[in-house]
Amino acid sequence: MFNNKDNKSGLVLGMLAGAALGALVGLLFAPESGEETRKKIKKKSDDLKDQAKNKYGELSDAVKDQFNNASASVKETASNVANSVTDGFDKLKGQITSKAEDAQEKAEPKSK
């Protein structure tokens, strides 16, 4: 169930790491001043941090949704089982009551 999510999160992390590494290498080899390069690195770093926060939020929401769906499914199943048990008990109670009434009716004529 969670294997698919783990694969997706690993893929996302790999993509983010690759993008960061590619951006860093590109900036370091660019023919610009050190100050300009540092500004670009900081901007890329901030962008990647924002992307990571967004992906974390998306993954967190997905996990919460999965948990809520599983929880609702368990509650529904428990409710169905409880209803089945109650229905079975009521049916059994009705059968016992019917048998008791039949026995009482059969016993009454003999005692008269």
From TrEMBL:
Transmembrane intervals: 12-30
Pfam annotation, one family: YtxH
Presence of keyword Ribonucleoprotein: no
Entry superkingdom: Bacteria
InterPro entries: Desiccation-related_membrane, YtxH
Alphabetically ordered keywords of this record: Membrane, Transmembrane, Transmembrane helix
Region described as Disordered: 33-52
Coiled coil spans: none
Protein name per Swiss-Prot or TrEMBL: YtxH domain-containing protein
Classification lineage: Bacteria, Pseudomonadati, Bacteroidota, Sphingobacteriia, Sphingobacteriales
